[in-house]
Design goal:
InterPro entries: Metallo-B-lactamas (IPR001279), Mito_Persulfide_Diox (IPR051682), POD-like_MBL-fold (IPR044528), RibonucZ/Hydroxyglut_hydro (IPR036866). With about 230 residues, the chain is an alpha/beta fold. The protein is about 25% helix and about 30% strand. It is globular and about 50 Å long.
Length: about 230
């Protein structure tokens, strides 16, 4: 397997490149529009064919590269079916599987941060791409885009039921951390130390965070596959 973790400094977004080393087919998770040229250059350098571009959810802090990548490479742009993004090439749902040569990416519906939030799991490689559902020492906020703290609590329990050694790769980190494990988060993530769903809902209700500064631009653009017009 070919694996790269890429970073957009402006939005603190991680994008993930996965590829089968034999047939050279690749996918990108959570690509950022401003980094599109860098993705295309890397694909060319590694002699990879982009098959899929995926978003874990409709992002509020950056504009997606899904539409642009589809235009340039002919890849399929995929979103969760709850996103209602009509311009996508297709939609995934819970328990779907995306095949990329020998790689089998399992699709997990994990609502809470938004009502269209998904995670992607590679069981053989023990890799979990958590979007904004589970962050390193944190979790995604639940106060807009039909977020629901109680739903997120249940989604987190589902993730924590996976093997504890599973490596976690989130969509964002604001401290420079790159990855973690489910066991590490279970032990040290303060938002996972609450006793029950009621306590988690109360914790999330009292965060009082400002809206992302790009929210009014990013959300409508991302519902149009990255186009602001």
């Amino acid at each position: 397997m070919i694996f790269r973790q890429l970073f957009d400094r402006e939005s603190s977004t991680y994008t993930y490149l996965l590829a089968d080393i034999t047939n050279r087919q690749a996918l990108l998770i959570d690509p950022v529009l401003e980094q599109c040229d860098a993705y295309l250059a890397l694909l060319s350098q590694l002699d990879l064919q982009l098959i899929y571009a995926l978003d874990t959810h409709v992002h509020a802090d950056h504009v997606t590269a899904l539409g642009r990548l589809r235009e340039v490479t002919g890849c399929k742009s995929l979103m969760g079916k709850q996103s209602e993004v009509a311009c996508a090439s297709g939609w995934f749902a819970d328990q779907d599987q995306l095949n990329l040569g020998a790689l089998q990416l399992q699709v997990l519906y994990t609502p809470g941060h938004t009502d269209d939030s998904y995670c992607f799991y590679l069981p053989e490689q023990a890799l979990l791409f958590t979007g904004d559902t589970l962050l390193i020492r944190g979790t995604g906020r639940t106060d807009f885009q039909n977020g629901d703290a109680r739903a997120q609590y249940q989604s987190l329990q589902r993730l924590l039921a996976l093997p504890p050694q599973t490596r976690v790769y989130p969509a964002h980190d604001y401290k420079g951390w790159t990855s973690t494990s489910l066991e590490e988060e279970r032990r040290h993530n303060p938002r996972l130390q609450v006793p029950d769903v009621d306590a988690y809902a109360e914790l999330m209700a009292n965060l009082k965070l400002p809206n992302p500064h790009m929210m009014d631009v990013a959300v409508p653009a991302n519902k149009a596959c990255g186009r602001a017009d």
